[in-house]
Amino acid sequence: MGYLKYARPAILIVLAIWFLLLIHPFTKEGVVITEVEAPASLVLRERDIISSVNGNNILTLEDYENAISQIEPNDTVSIVVLRETFPYTYREISHLFVAEERDNKTFLGIVADKTHFSNLRFSHKLIGGNKFIISTNQSNAIEIIKERLEINKVHDYSISKEGDKIILITTAGEEIVPLLETKGEFYAKVDNKIFFTTKDIKNICITGVDCALNLYPYMNESKEESTIIWRYGFEVSLTKEASQRFANLTKDLSIASCKGERCTLNATIDYYIDGKLIGSEEIYASNKELPYDRPIVGGAKLTKEDAMKALYFTQAMLKGGLDAKVEEIVPVKEKQNPMGLIVYVMIGIVIASAIVSFVFLRKIKILFAGMLLGFSEIVIVIGAITGLNMMITISTLVSLIIVSLITFGYQNYITYKLKKEGIIKSKIVGLSKKINKWMIIAIIVSFALVFFFSSFISPILIQLIIILVLTKSLFIKTIESA
Q1: Is the pTM of this model over 0.85?
Q2: Torsion 350-356-357-359 (CA) sign
Q3: From CA 36, how far away is CA 47, in angstroms rounded?
């Protein structure tokens, strides 16, 4: 059973290496896809790195912009990307598609940016972003914009009123303009007659908890070919008046077709936003002349990514109408990224902690163990933030400093107590149990608070768990063997 003593060091090393890979401190040359939709989205994905466009090698954002500036609508576009299948392991993928025309411009469906140093995501309050200047006379416009952004997973933003304008600052790009400008005038029709509108909706299914929310592949069959498309939809709860309206609208419909015992009527429920058809729902014969109080609003897209975006967008539109126009998009100057300074401070604290421990116990082994364990904790915490796709905010940076101070505190408390009381087995065991008790209490408190202060508490909680499970025991074992 002697091999068990190597289990904790091995686990710590594996975790440190894995989380370092998640941080991704080294990137390939090229440009990375940050947003993608049709026509490019049939094959390409977000985070793919573009290496070639129509045979032109792409090393910089300027190379990419020069290459796409030569493409006209209806041109065939050849793009080669590198897709990461495992950290630092890439697969080359080629895609041919036809460029479209939108707003009198060539449209590929790709938003690209330069590759970044790491996968860490920073708040606009740290690195800047885009300022959207929005004009509207609607009194509740800010509340509706906030709802639309949150439903579409845009959480990093600041919004305020300046005179008769709304100012929105966010790291999101121009892809959010439809969220800000679409009026969201929704209605559903049966046999070209109004079934219900936004005013008839009592509740909208947003999360899929205790209500129906669908996103699934579907085989679309025709005489020429069969293709897989993605259907999306969400349940809405209607008033009694609207439910009864469905019964009245379907009483004169006839059966159109049957598959086994399931038959459909010769009309569908058609859903519209701002007069544009977004999707339809079949009407089953078994529902004819019955009140229908929970229809599924939705449609279909060619890819899962497009279907998910359409789902969020449609949910947001049903939350309320908006009469607004984006007047201008102004890039906010990128601020100095403070992450490097924070890392240097954290490393400095870890080194200082290890030196203090060495001064107390005069063992060179303690010096190296303190630094290695401290660095491992930092890498794991920052890597976990990356893996959880958390946004680095000012409060997150503050908590990372606290993380380093925790390392300083627990290591030097141990060495101070053992220096003062003498390094004997009973003292070490008793001290370890005492620290365990306080750390368990701290973890319970942190777990309770993480739901309210996620960006601040999460790194501290991760740190405490790593110390309790791995590094504290390893540090004490080092002292025992020194």
Answers
A1: no
A2: positive
A3: 10
